[in-house]
Write a structure and sequence with these properties.
The protein is α/β, with parallel strands linked by helices. It has seven helices and eleven strands. The two termini are about 30 Å apart.
Length: about 260
Amino acid sequence: MPAYDSIASVYDNINSEIDYSAWADFIENCFNRFLPQKPELVLDLACGTGSMTLELASRGYDMIGADYSEDMLAEAYEKAYDKEMSGILFLKQDMRAFELYGTVGAICCCLDSMNYLTADGDLEKCLGCVHNYLDPDGLFIFDVNTPHKFKNIYGNNHYIFEDNDSYGNVAFCGWQNEYDEETKLCNFYLSVFTEGENGKYTRVDEVQTERCYSKDELTAALMQSGFELIGFFGDWEFNAPKDSCERWYIVARAKK
């Protein structure tokens, strides 16, 4: 699994346009629509720097945040400490083979983390774990980047980000994409330059890979893993996705 270690300190700035409050509203609306009562314990799978974990914790949910990257978890822990949210349990876990102390009422997995399940069988392994650790009829709420986004937004394009990292140092991130329509794999070649105290920059390179999944692939994997598919949505208002959608929001119920 990719660890995203090289950009952990600039991850939040790269994704500064994400409205976590509105996204959390959608997750809570899913609870209200599809569960008889709100879950007490929720897992944020592939939680990254913990932005969604903290947002849901602030709304009264007991939260577990799991991620494969120690650096991302360190950022999440620091943010929780700063906000005096010491009750959040952060775990270093592989989303294909994670372990919890018991079941939870709901699991969310945000910001296309499921697209990082790139090898054959990875998706099914993850869904098997999710199903295992959900209460009967518990919800799995996740999103994926759409085929439209892989073909037309990522493609073979490149981007440059300039901002400060989480420690206030100037940072540049070069991001180059390489999408193969035959394998459905998109490689992201990342180079992060961070300014040090002496004014010199340190460079760290990393390669990330995402896999493009079709609706049919996701639906089949969910059904085979014991889920009831509630729906694919194109936005946080539960509208059907359009061809131009860059992200699908998927809700499924664990049948046991």
